[in-house]
Write a structure and sequence with these properties.
6-stranded mixed sheet, alpha/beta, Ribose ABC transporter ATP-binding protein, about 30% helix
Length: about 300
């Protein structure tokens, strides 16, 4: 007789719906996310990715449905209320989360400085020691005493990520974390994400770089017009999707009747990604040849992150 106990989800969404006027942004979405799991969110512009992230991070309230965290039903009223139960979001533009006029160390501890019992402002030595301990624990070398404005784009992104990790999140939401980074800087950031996931932090990631999704997630959900239409192992993305980032020899294709459409993405800068419409058409032809229906083509002039 087996004594195995089914794992309990860290986050559970039940029949989550949200409308803006006549537009249904989310339509009865059900989703479980487990500790240490990496979940990619795929979908075309307007599919509901941003709405899902905003509800999970406390920036938006659902019209109907329930959000459960660690077995407790939650009603988030702000991002702070979401952070209190371990859900932290890192958005695409790091400058939105940085306070100019403060040092790197002060920005790293910005959430702690906002607490009523914080004494860092009266004890700068204590502040610096705390910041050094956080940076060292994450293996980061940041110029903690410099004004934050002197940091480059990559170090700003790492700073914002380190600040999120300092909150000891249970679920970390990443919105295009490497979009503005070089390959080398992206590798630094992805390595940091890997280390946190190994410690049991769950990751929910939106990215146009499918190679990043392959790196930090094991599962992908697909949103279409607000509905969750697919939930699959990241390894089993349609074989044509792998042409976006290189060799597919280690990834067996799935059959057309089980395949899910993946948005065609353009305007990439890293080698191996679609860079123009001609390459996009070539990939579409490959998909059509494999019997997998492509999603609507997006013009480079009008494409958006979501």
């Amino acid at each position: 007789m087996s004594n195995l106990v089914a794992p309990v989800p860290l986050v559970r969404l039940l029949d989550l719906s949200k409308s803006f006027g006549a537009q249904r942004a989310l339509d009865q979405v059900n989703l479980d996310i487990y500790p240490g799991e990496g979940v990619a969110v795929l979908g075309a512009s307007g599919a509901g990715k941003s709405t899902l992230v905003k509800i999970l991070s406390g920036s938006l309230a659902p019209d109907t449905g329930e959000v459960w965290v660690a077995g407790q039903r939650q009603r988030f009223t702000s991002p702070l209320s979401a952070r209190r139960v371990g859900i932290v979001a890192v958005h695409q533009c790091p400058d939105d989360a940085i306070a100019p006029g403060l040092s790197v160390a002060e920005n790293l501890l910005l959430d702690e400085l906002g607490q009523p019992d914080a004494d860092f402002l009266l004890n700068r030595k204590s502040l610096l020691q705390r910041a050094e301990a956080i940076a060292a624990g994450l293996g980061l070398e940041l110029p903690l005493q410099l004004p934050v404005e002197r940091l480059g784009q990559a170090d700003r992104q790492l700073l914002v990520l380190a600040r999120a990790f300092a909150l000891h999140p249970k679920l970390l939401i990443l919105d295009e974390p490497t979009a503005a980074l070089s390959a080398a800087d992206a590798e630094r950031l992805l390595g940091l994400i890997d280390s946190q996931r190994a410690r049991g932090v769950a990751i929910l990631c939106i990215s146009q770089r499918l190679s990043d999704l392959q790196r930090v997630t094991n599962r992908a959900i697909v949103l279409q017009q607000g509905r969750l239409t697919g939930d699959l192992n990241t390894r089993h993305l349609p074989s044509a999707a792998y042409t976006l980032f290189g060799d597919t020899a280690e990834h067996p294709p799935i059959t057309a009747d089980k395949a899910l459409p993946v948005p065609f993405l353009e305007r990439f800068t890293r080698a191996g990604f679609i860079r123009n419409r001609a390459e996009g058409r070539a990939v579409q032809e490959q998909v059509l040849g494999s019997g997998v229906a492509p999603t609507e083509e997006v013009s480079p002039a009008t494409s958006k992150p979501r």
